[in-house]
Every structure is written in structure tokens, then in C-alpha cells.
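Sample intake sheet
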Amino acid sequence: MAKGKYDTAILYGQPLTEDASGKLYVAEGEKEHPWRIGKHTKGKLIGPGQVFLTEQNQKVRLVKTAPLSFKDRHDYQPMGRFTKDVLD
């Protein structure tokens, strides 16, 4: 990989809502939205069900990933960091 480049991928996820007891869930009718792994993304990608944070600290459940060429990375909003939390 050339200097200055980093791995990229599209992350399709559904924003999460927290109930009064702190349990995370996907609200009914919530659609998938795309984000991407960014240069400053923290944490490690585990896979579907993993919770990640957007740059605005919104919690999102990862649904699937897709390849993303480095040159197209600016077409997608970067996410903030991966957590170790995984939901069904």
C-alpha cells in the first residue's frame, strides 16, 4: 500500500436507540445508512452486529461491509470508532 493510504471499506449500519434501562435496539423501520472506515478510525472491525460510533458519537449496529476503493472514499461519511459490543 502506498504511503499515506489506509484500508477503506463501506460500513452499512442501522442507528441504535437506547431504552430507559440502557438496552440498545434498532427502532422499527430504521433504514441502513453507509459510513466508511476513515484514516483516524479507532478499534478493530469484528463483523455484523458490532456496534460502532459515528463521528458525532451516535451508536450504530453494523449490518454488512462492502469494498471501497481508496479514490472513492470521500463519497461516504467517515465513522469514528469501533466498540467491542456485538448485538444480535
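Comment: The chain has a mean pLDDT of 94. Residues 53 and 59 are 5 Å apart (CA to CA).
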